[in-house]
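Re-run requested by the PI after the first attempt was lost when the workstation crashed. Everything re-entered from the original request form. Ligand of interest: coenzyme A.
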Amino acid sequence: MTSLKVATPTHSQVLGVSGVRGEVVVPNDELVGPIDSSDEWIQQRTGIVTRRRALPETTLKDLCMGAARAALDAASVEASEIDVVILSSVTHLEQTPALATTLAFELGAAPAAAFDISAACAGYCYAIGMADTMVRSGQAQKVLVIGAERMSDFVDPTDRTISFLLGDGAGAAVIGVSDTPKIGPTVWGSDGSHARAIYQTHSWQTFMDGSDTSWPTLRQEGPTVFKWAAFEIPRVAARAIEAAGLTPEDIDVFIPHQANMRIIDQMIKHLGLRPDVVVGRDIAETGNTSAASIPLATERLFREGQVHGGQVALQIGFGAGLAYAAQVFILPNQNTANEKGNNNGTE
Ligand SMILES: CC(C)(COP(=O)(O)OP(=O)(O)OC[C@H]1O[C@@H](n2cnc3c(N)ncnc32)[C@H](O)[C@@H]1OP(=O)(O)O)[C@@H](O)C(=O)NCCC(=O)NCCS
């Protein structure tokens, strides 16, 4: 019988991670008036001190391009080497075409396969899982993953459920071939019974037929999300550690979705991570940037010299859907020469 001559399955690795934030630093005091809140309340309940928002003229595409170039640079990879571009975003304002195809073209990665996915705050880890599978199967040699959001387009300044949490930014990673396994299996899933826990106020249909012509914005049932994230999600992270053949003591670096500092602390407690584990806590200054938050937290850890290549990292994304995904991976020995410039802001 004739067999097909196909690429040999191999291992995968993260080659570089970076990102850019919205240029404007927005402190709590600038938002509290219309929601009858205070800087103290927001800091205590969420850990957020400022969030980063994009200038009016900075588009989602601009943020994506900045993050993609920074990640390619960190990975020392040329855009022309990229076989697939995956963008995770819930804030691209055009139904079609996917923004990823434009990004691939403008970066110089065409004719790379390119598509967008929608998995909200879990989207970056969903996309890393897909990239890992593509590389291991031989379907691609190098994949560019981008998680990017311009959340401020869906913010209602009078909403006290979620808007004050949200920031703008983009993070990206390059995944490539490896001689040894450096990305563990992705543990992922969803629970659509809680689809209304984080939601858009009204549908585009309602907007279109004129029954509500206000611009749709985001809302959430904060306490429902909090309980789910703080108590259920650590079990997903524990399964990802086990799937990688490791124990919680093996984890050097923990990079959770930046939803709430209290959720991060609960997760560390429930997971039983080592007291000296390095934790991504970018939320204090950047806010919750949904799909961008994990690579941005990773970018900060590298820029501040808190982590180095070869360490064992656990990352986990969770949010609207409800959807979640986690994986363990080895931090890359990435190029740090341009990291200061990658911050793209006023710090
Ligand atoms: C949103 C969140 C910060 C609210 O904090 P909370 O402690 O759960 O707040 P609650 O809704 O239980 O309300 C507690 C009190 O704070 C008040 N409150 C609610 N929102 C407030 C706000 N933005 N500012 C000031 N006070 C607020 C409530 O009115 C209530 O007052 P009361 O005790 O006098 O009745 C919190 O639920 C949270 O972070 N949830 C997870 C959100 C998340 O991570 N989402 C993204 C996932 S991707």
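Saved to the shared folder this time. The two ends are 64 Å apart (CA to CA).
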